[in-house]
User: Fold this.
Amino acid sequence: MGRRKKYDVPTHNKMLIPIIEALKVLGGSGSIEEINETVYEIMSLDEQTLSVPHNEAGVQSKVEYRLAWARTYLKKYGLIENSSRGIWSLIDSEINTTQLDSEKIVRFVRENTLKIPKADTNSNSNNYSQDEQIEDEVEIELGWKERLILVLLKIAPSTFERLCQRVLRESGFIQVEVKGKSGDGGIDGKGIARINGFLSFHVFFQCKRYKGSVGSGDIRDFRGAMQGRADKGLFITTGNFTREGVKEATRDGAPPIDLIDGDLFCEKLREFNLGVRTELIEKITVNSDWLNKI
Assistant:
């Protein structure tokens, strides 16, 4: 087997088995973030490969997007399932990954669970139609976030700061202030996080409208600006964080910095109904048995 080129993102087919292996490592279940991070380690994916963006929105990397495809295939094959809270789990915790064939999984899903247009007899076109159906399901999971990030990237910096302020208030922070000016080491605001009404932490936060990856240097600069002035730091971005950035944020002996990337920020906007609305479609069922018995 040839050596994978640097920056050459693995296909979703090659990620199927590593996802199962990751879930086994995690004890049978995990969040998308936990699963993805474990897959990165299992597949030994380098930082450059993980930084390749899926598209201009930058909310997901190409690796994350293909992992979403892989999860969809595994779910349709009956190996994993997900809860309404976004936790994915193995249906059979005793599954033996050495007995799994990724090509067989893909072939089974395409042949048995996807609807193929009858009028289309061209095999290449059929495969494209199958892939498009998977893509539609992935778009339900990821597409709205990408559209939202593109909107956020176009709003004024002051508007984005006020939006972050609103999110923090909705999350339970009090005395949330936005500085409204540049400088001060990148500190955009401060607030107090209350826990169970007893404990409180003074938090400085930075809001970065960005469609790339925030690295360890940005985290160090922010920590340097807040050190000795706050209990914790909070870094909010519309982009994502490099693995080195995440490690720097939780480095032993340094003031802790919590991270909110574009994906989590979108989830918070949806949770608090801030510019994002989830519409439930009413389903009407006709009960013929009831009508016949009246």
User: Anything to note?
Assistant: The first strand starts at residue 29 and ends at 31. Strands lie at 29-31, 80-82, 87-90, 173-178, 189-195, 199-208, 213-214, 232-237, 240-241, 257-260. The first helix runs from residue 12 to 25.
